């Protein structure tokens, strides 16, 4: 198992190329989706969730190969409707890219441990609601944006259950 301290600190702007990663000086990893900050370390997310008494939204994505993941990010997570309620949760992004230059080998190893625990079926995209203590509360898998409606209602309903 990879410890939280062995993961190097990184910040990613999810609106830009994921490989435009830059090191930060903190021990907490953050990913920005729009104006939101997504952590990439479950232990840090649980610390923040405990401190703020919030649930954790865990978003499993394949940032460089999963078209539905990219569409869900654009159609739902990068919208004012989601952003308006995002501060009621701690946001955690677990990426499973195919390209090796997107995240560090340590981060990939760490992400696999989180996938093994919360995404055993390895379905992408998957959104899991987790309690501040790490207990799974609910999950929703998949997204189809290949129709003209880009129906995000299932994801909205899922997230809104925990507001």
UniProtKB/TrEMBL annotation:
Keywords: Signal. Residues 12-163 form the Thioredoxin domain. InterPro entries: AGR/TXD, Thioredoxin-like_sf, Thioredoxin_domain. It comes from the Bacteria. This is Thioredoxin domain-containing protein. It comes from Patiriisocius marinus.
């Amino acid at each position: 198992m990879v410890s939280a301290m062995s993961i190097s600190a990184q910040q990613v702007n999810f609106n830009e190329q994921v490989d435009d990663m830059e090191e930060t000086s903190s021990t907490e990893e953050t990913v920005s989706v729009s104006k939101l900050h997504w952590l990439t370390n479950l232990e840090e997310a649980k610390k923040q969730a405990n401190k703020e008494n919030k649930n954790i939204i865990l978003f499993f994505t394949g940032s460089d190969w999963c078209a539905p993941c990219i569409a869900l990010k654009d159609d739902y997570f990068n919208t004012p409707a989601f952003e308006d309620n995002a501060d009621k949760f701690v946001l955690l992004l677990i990426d499973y890219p195919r390209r090796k230059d997107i995240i560090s080998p340590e981060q990939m190893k760490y992400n696999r441990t989180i996938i093994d625990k919360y995404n055993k079926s390895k379905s992408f995209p998957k959104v899991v609601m987790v309690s501040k203590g790490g207990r799974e509360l609910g999950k929703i898998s998949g997204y189809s944006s290949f129709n003209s409606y880009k129906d995000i209602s299932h994801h909205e309903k899922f997230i809104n259950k925990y507001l």
